[in-house]
């Protein structure tokens, strides 16, 4: 029995972990690397054709984005995930493939002019379609036997719709071991989704620690504070730009904005809100369809009363490019929610280009910004940034709302670990920057846990929990 770490090892993105047991090789997640984490144009350092299965925790691209590359390189096994995740992947992976194809065409035009060798896209639309065909949808709390000696169970992780922690039960040569993969552990009391569910036992735990060095503010009414920023910005004639992940965060924002309008927390409750992301538009429609199944009790009650918790007057979805461009020439103050969440691509860069230099505007960050991303650069106080080759002055008010994060903070992570009735033999800490990993390891040690933050491509023997030398 062996575990190897091929992504999100002392970094935040690119989740990809390999298990070798009972004669099989399978991955938990196969995500895209983002920001400073990017390596070798996302190449996978393993034999893709030898992988038998993939277990997928949720749809976010840093957990799922290299699945079509895996298929392109020869993977022909099954992908197991929650049914709601399959619905979201049908949007995410097609969109990712479209971006890969577009970016490659643009780069190759430059290369032709320069007489350089042409490149091929990381993957194409056909690979995304082939990936979707390989998915076997599962239900929460259902024990699934994927092969002799390997069973799995998905537990609600409370991160986004369909997100899961995964229990993996292994038997090999008379040895039985259980491993729990946390996936992304949700923040407590988020709108829409349920809180993370407890798991009571495991020999090993592989857990994320994105916010393992800090606490989210809990003494703030975020709906009221968000309403205050929106009210103040619109009253001075500025736009509010919110870079937001298309899946999960955008829907949570719509829930809060509906709430603030209903409670009269803004002086002009009919202010316009634009969701400027075709992917977010599609995802919101899927959320609408699934809230009665996967939503928390409060959300299900709203749906049962015939209301849509993600809808309100003066909400518009701008799917067309023409409509997106028009937003920046419309003088009416407005809220623009647009992706990508880390400002690395998508339409939000255009909205930042048109608003960052305006003192009357505001930019609100509502999610983690990885090192090396435009979002992180702005948050760290840059006075000027480069957007599409143009130097843009940063004069807008910048706000960071970590309390709206869909990730648990340090306290939430420790509370999740404390669900285990007996301490696991070892905890592997992943999905955190190097410095954050060290802080969280110290916190775990203070609580009496045996923990390690593996390096990229490190392997461990699961029979005894020891490091296997060499990379």
Structural features, described:
31% of the residues lie in helices and 22% in strands. With 471 residues, it is α/β, with parallel strands linked by helices. The strands form four sheets. Strands 6-5-4-3-2-1-22-23 form an eight-stranded mixed β-sheet. A seven-stranded mixed β-sheet has the order 7-8-9-10-11-20-21, covered by helices on one side. Helix 3 runs antiparallel to helix 4.
Give me the CATH architecture of the largest domain, please: 4-Layer Sandwich
Give the percentage of residues in beta strands: 15-25%
CATH fold title of the largest domain: Metallo-beta-lactamase, Chain A
Counted up, domains total 2
Query: How are the strands ordered across the major sheet?
Result: 6-5-4-3-2-1-22-23
Name the poorly predicted regions: none
Mean pLDDT: 92
β-strand number: 23
Intertermini distance: 17 Å
Largest sheet: 8 strands, mixed
Shape, per Cα inertia axes: globular
Tally of separate helices = 13
Return the structural class. alpha/beta
* CATH C-level name of the largest domain: Alpha Beta
**Which superfamily, in CATH terms, is the homologous superfamily of the largest domain?**
Ribonuclease Z/Hydroxyacylglutathione hydrolase-like
Q: Radius of gyration over alpha carbons?
A: 22 Å
* Percent range of helical residues: 25-40%
